[in-house]
Each structure stands twice: as structure tokens, then as C-alpha cells.
Design brief:
It is a single chain. By secondary structure, the chain is of the alpha+beta class. It is built from 23 helices and eleven strands. The protein is globular.
């Protein structure tokens, strides 16, 4: 089986000239010359990036998925290659209705007819990992219209097999390509495997969906389907059926009375809210996963679908971004460089002046252009590429963020070519940074820590007394001095805590 699969990979590679694309980077050049001799009849009209995309499509769904994930690693790939791979879509035929019904029966231990009042055996969407059917819950379960996502049968074995081949090819690439070690193909395959195995657990996707819905409860901008947990398993996910139009259907949206300019601005606000307020964002926001509601109650709201890939940011990540955005708005490129070094993402011995000059070369030209012509995502991309020259370790969560920002910006400008991302995002970012770094952040921090202080304060006198009551040898004068110093510090700490608590109480009455 593996030999047959490997033979297909070699055949497709030869048809699209992938061997030539790889071997032309081999340091000695001998293997590339030998390949040209054996394939003297080949002529290619398409550029290499297009041939790679076509080859991945020919190799099947797992390789298509790999190309999609690879397109997000713009910190590693040339721009033309990343742009071409970003065009990959899941062009996967659905599996049969019989298999779908068998998967449902295996998940619940009973047939679909006993689980649902209605179940449409014809899928409405099909991708590399799963496909979706519409159904209706039984009256005793609420009778809601639902979308049922069903994992493709035997996917774990298929994925393990193809990942093993990808890892072998990545190892070969590292050996024969001059840039192989720098591009870290085996690490990229390992990262892809993590995302892919995560998507195999539909309970994880259901949890992502539920978290995003909770974050946007009562939102006027975004709808997220409700998850029906009693009907979810690792291979079947049941959620609310959402009604709307695909966001790619601009003419239909206009006909339905949707304001495209307002829609594009709302998309930007939704993204920045997810990133900076929640630190939890939908990281696969391509047009196929976004609909727009047109019913009277929710007219013009975004509808998010497919939650297999999400990104998360820690407080450290958000603080790093805040410092960079703030310095960027002020054209303080030295602070941008220092933020990278302080975060530990650039080597400690990096020359700040050289790094600052490189960042200035990326950022300064954009300030002389009209704001509507500035691509926020492209600026971030160029910053990542510049950072690579200084051996900056680009964090995976920030790469996911940059990829999602490019998706949002591209989508927004398709809806409204005059979208001014800076004008839309800057007030939100400034407000958020004020909350994180200003007086309000200080007061919020006090409120957060107050319960801890309330527990610790009553214990401090006892702890000091225990330290002072400890028996000491006569010659322990140094230890006595240390304890006396510790007592003075404790007294100062008590005074400081009292002042902070007083400030906290006063702030609550302002």
C-alpha cells in the first residue's frame, strides 16, 4: 500500500516537475542535470508555484490540506509561493450516504432515524476531513433544525500513512535542497500533523465553537451556532443550522439590502475583538466559512462556521503586540526592535540599531501613502520576513494571527475596495492599549489581585512573629540583621498594600 502511494507521488511529481523545482537548489547541481537528461521531453508553461499547487491537488485531500497549512507559513515561504498555495480549496467529493449513515450509527449505537426526526442523506458541504448534512432533532430534544458534521471514515489511518510519507519527503528535502535546513520542512510537517489530528476530534471543534459563541453572546456583529452537546461525539458534531448567504456572493448580499461597507468594517472589528479582548480567534476565516444573515432579526450579521482551527494568545503575546502597535503608530522603530529582544524572540546580542534600521525600511514608506492603500497584513508579513534576517523565532500563534489578518483584510477589501483598515482598527487598538497599559489597567490589576491580598494580609503578622521567635545562636548577628531588614521590608509592604487597597476602594466609588 505504501509503495503504491509512493509510486503515485513520484509519478505526480514527475508530471509537474517537482523534482526539477527541488533539485535546482541542490548545491552541486549534478542531480538536477541528471534529472533533465532523464526528462528531456518535459516542457512546462506554468510557473513553479502553480505547478506545486496543481500537484498537491492531484495527490488528494491530505496533501491539499498540507498546502493550505503551508500557505500560512509566510515567514518561511517566498511570497509568490504562499499566494499560490493560498488558492487551494478542498475539492473533495463527498463520501456515500451509506457511509455517512454508518458513521452516525457507530457514533450513537443506533441508526440515524432513531436519533433525528429527519436526516438528509445528501451532504450540503464536503471537505478533506468531514462533510455536513442537514437534519432535525426529535421533538423530545427540542425539534431544532441542525447541521450534522460527520468525520470521514478511517481518516486516522489515512492521515498517519500520508504523514509518514510527507515526513520522509521532508527529510529528503532537507538533505538535497540548499535552503532545506533553514526552511525546516520536517518541523512544518510536525506542525501540520498537530493541526490535522486536532481536527479529527470533533468534540474539540465543538468546544471551540462553544467558546466563541460565549465570547460573542449578545453581539450585534457576529452569530455563532449553538452546540447540542448531547448529540456530539468525537466523530459527529451537531450544531444549530444557520441561515444566510455566503459572503462571497456580493450581488446577492446587495440585493438583500446588506451594506457592504458596514459589513467590511464589522469584519475588522470582530477580528480585533477576538484577538485583543479574548485572545481566542477563529483562524480559518476564508470566504467558505463565513455567511451573512439576512433574516430581519439578524440582518447584516456575520455567521462564523467551521471551528477546527483557532488561535490563542497569552497575555505576554498581547503585551508584545500592544507595545509593537503603540510604537508603530508613534514611528518609534527602536522600541519595536527592543520589544522583540525583550520578549526573547530576537537573540540577546542583536544590534538594536541595525534591527531598528531594517524595521524603519519596511514601515516608513507606508506613512507617505494614502491610508486606504496600506495593507496592514502585508506590513506585518514584511516585518516577519525582516525579522527572519535577524534570526528572530517567529511564534506559531503570531503566524496564525498574521494569516488570519491577511484573510480578513482581503475579504474586507473585496466587500469595500475603499476600506481604510488603519482608520477602522486604530481607535479600537488605542482603546484596548489604554485599558492594558494605562490607569484603567492599573486599577483592573488591583481589583484582580485584591482577593489574594485579602487572604495574605492577615497572615503577615504571624509569619513575621514566627521568624522573630525562631531561636538563634549568639554569633548569628548577620542573620539577626537580615531578619530586622526583612521586618522593615514587611512593614513597608504592609503600608504599600494599605495604600493600594485604599486606591482600589476609592476607584470603585468614582
Amino acid at each position: 500500500m505504501r509503495l503504491l502511494r509512493l509510486a503515485k507521488i513520484l509519478r505526480v511529481s514527475s508530471r509537474y516537475g517537482l523534482d526539477e523545482m527541488i533539485l535546482e537548489h541542490e548545491p552541486s547541481g549534478r542531480l538536477a542535470a541528471l534529472s533533465r537528461v532523464f526528462h528531456f521531453w518535459r516542457r512546462f508553461d506554468e510557473p513553479p508555484a502553480v505547478r506545486l499547487r496543481l500537484a498537491l491537488e492531484a495527490l488528494g485531500p491530505i496533501f491539499v490540506k498540507f498546502g493550505q497549512v503551508l500557505s500560512t507559513r509566510r515567514d518561511l515561504l517566498p511570497p509568490e509561493l504562499a499566494d499560490e498555495l493560498a488558492k487551494l480549496q478542498d475539492r473533495v467529493p463527498p463520501f456515500s450516504s451509506e457511509l455517512a449513515l454508518a458513521q452516525v450509527a457507530a457514533a450513537y449505537g443506533r441508526p440515524a432515524s432513531e436519533v433525528f426526526a429527519e436526516f438528509d442523506a445528501t451532504p450540503v458541504a464536503s471537505a478533506s476531513i468531514a462533510q455536513v448534512h442537514f437534519a432535525r432533532l426529535r421533538p423530545e430534544d427540542g425539534g431544532h433544525e441542525v447541521a450534522v458534521k460527520i468525520l470521514r471514515p478511517d481518516m486516522r489511518a489515512v492521515i498517519a500513512h500520508d504523514l509518514a510519507l510527507l515526513d520522509t519527503l521532508a527529510g529528503l528535502l532537507e538533505r538535497v535542497w540548499s535552503d532545506g535546513k533553514r526552511l525546516k520542512p520536517r518541523e512544518v510537517v510536525a506542525e501540520f500533523a498537530k493541526y490535522l489530528y486536532d481536527e479529527l476530534d470533533l468534540m474539540r471543534e465543538a468546544a471551540n465553537c462553544s467558546q466563541l459563541r460565549r465570547n460573542f453572546t449578545g453581539s450585534k456583529l457576529l452569530q455563532v451556532p449553538e452546540v447540542y452537546w448531547d448529540h456530539c461525539t468525537t466523530t459527529v458534531m451537531v450544531m444549530e443550522r444557520m441561515q444566510g448567504l455566503p459572503i462571497s456572493q456580493k450581488d446577492a448580499l446587495v440585493e438583500a439590502g446588506v451594506d457592504l461597507a458596514a459589513l467590511s468594517r464589522a469584519g475588522v472589528e470582530i477580528f480585533f475583538t477576538q484577538v485583543f479582548r479574548d485572545g481566542f480567534f477563529h483562524a480559518d476565516m476564508h470566504p467558505g466559512n463565513i455567511f451573512v444573515a439576512i433574516d430581519p432579526a439578524n440582518h447584516g450579521k456575520y455567521i462564523a462556521l467551521d471551528f477546527g482551527i483557532v488561535g490563542t494568545l497569552t497575555d505576554v503575546d498581547k503585551n508584545y503586540l500592544a507595545q509593537n502597535f503603540l510604537a508603530f503608530f508613534q514611528r518609534d522603530y527602536k522600541r519595536v526592535a527592543q520589544a522583540h529582544i525583550e520578549a526573547g524572540w530576537a537573540p540577546a546580542d542583536t544590534r538594536v540599531d541595525e534591527f531598528e534600521a531594517a524595521i524603519r525600511a519596511v514601515c516608513e514608506p507606508i506613512f507617505d501613502r494614502p491610508l486606504r492603500e496600506i495593507s496592514f497584513g502585508r506590513v506585518l508579513l514584511r516585518l516577519f520576513q525582516t525579522s527572519r534576517r535577524f534570526n528572530v523565532e517567529i511564534q506559531p500563534q503570531l503566524v496564525m494571527l498574521q494569516k488570519t489578518l491577511l484573510n480578513i483584510e482581503g475579504l474586507g477589501r473585496q466587500l469595500d475596495p475603499d476600506l481604510d483598515l488603519w482608520k477602522t482598527a486604530k481607535p479600537f487598538l488605542e482603546r484596548w492599549m489604554g485599558e492594558q497599559l494605562g490607569q484603567r489597567a492599573f486599577l483592573n490589576g488591583l481589583k484582580l489581585e485584591a482577593p489574594h491580598w485579602a487572604r495574605t494580609l492577615p497572615q503577615l503578622p504571624r509569619l513575621v512573629h514566627q521568624a522573630l521567635a525562631r531561636p538563634l545562636a549568639p554569633d548569628n548577628s548577620a542573620l539577626l540583621a537580615e531578619i530586622a531588614g526583612a521586618q522593615r521590608r514587611q512593614n513597608r509592604l504592609l503600608g504599600l498594600i494599605a495604600l493600594l487597597l485604599a486606591a482600589l476602594i476609592a476607584s470603585q466609588h468614582l
